[in-house]
Amino acid sequence: MKLLISGASGLLGLNLALEASNVHTVVGVDQQKLVNTPFEMMNDNLLEPGAVERVLDSAKPDWLIHCAALANLEACEVNPELARRLNTNLPQEVAAACKQRGIRMVQISTDAVFDGTKNDAYTENDVPNPPGIYAKTKMAAEQAVLKSNPDAIVARVNFYGFSPSGSRSLAEFFINNLSAGKPINGFTDVRFCPTFVGDLANLLLAMLGKGLHGVYHTVSTKCMTKYDFGIALAKKFGLDETLITPISVKESNLIARRAHNLCLDTHKLSTALDTPVPVFSTGLGQFYTQFQQGYPQKIRSYAQK
Asked: Per-residue pLDDT for 90 more than 80?
């Protein structure tokens, strides 16, 4: 299959493109230029009038995974108009264009569409209540995409991995600071299902291969606090876990509100794929193996000019 990936210079986009290029023909599109990638890159600004149609007609993909977004929660609060254009309007345009051309699409959404007030794991039947600008624009995108293209997949995710900048994921935040011997905080009252980006990439490809449509929770099976996530990373990487101070998110100076419980139920996805969803410990092991094999340096090399 020929797969087009928007936002191909981002953490998910680049890792996904590298993983998918092992078995598919991959074309990435992004404003930021990448160099020496093992897949074709198109440099374009999808917000420009006519750009979406131009890229689709040039690449002629069978599948599209839309990763492009303004994913920084604080930046969304500061610039809500840009967040709306990137996170809601653009996915709607992409979905409509894919529908017209018979291209199967995945819209990358987020666990943050929930307000975190539920005591147990959220299912796809639970009604979202997005608490901030980022979450609100991503929720609006879910609705707009499925209205424009009912055959599309909406994947709610939360992932970690190595990024071209070396500083995009929560895992990199912990590793970078702990490696430098810097004390950091870990939230004890924010729970989520951290998913290794390589596992997420394979899940997304499997979902397209199965011809799924609709909303799916596409995360690992283990829910933990962000403090516990940091501790798990420290232990795996042989770093000093005592540098991580357990605190409440209420004690932070973050602008955007963080939901306390973002545990997602993955039963719908595992049933649809007829296979278990990857577990956290396996993904963490793969992440550490990447570190040992020099993958962080490799992925950063693609962003060098």
From this structure: yes
Best CA proximity match to 185, nearest among 126, 224, 231: 231
Residue 130 structure tokens: 């997005």
Residues 152 and 105: beta-carbon distance below 8 Å: yes
CA–CA separation, 128 vs 254, rounded Å?
22
Q: Regarding the domain with residue range 2-301, which homologous superfamily does it belong to in the CATH classification? A: NAD(P)-binding Rossmann-like Domain (3.40.50.720)
Q: What are phi and psi of 122, to 5 degrees?
A: -80, 140
CA separation for the pair 303, 106 (Å, rounded): 25
Torsional sign, CA 286, 290, 291, 297: negative
Structure tokens at 174: 């912990």
| pLDDT tens-digit series, residues 248-262 | 988 877 766 678 999
Rounded CA-CA distance 149/107 in Å is 11
Alpha-carbon torsion (162, 166, 170, 174), positive or negative? positive
Whether the predicted model's global pTM rises above the 0.85 cut: yes
The tokens of 94 are what?
């992409």
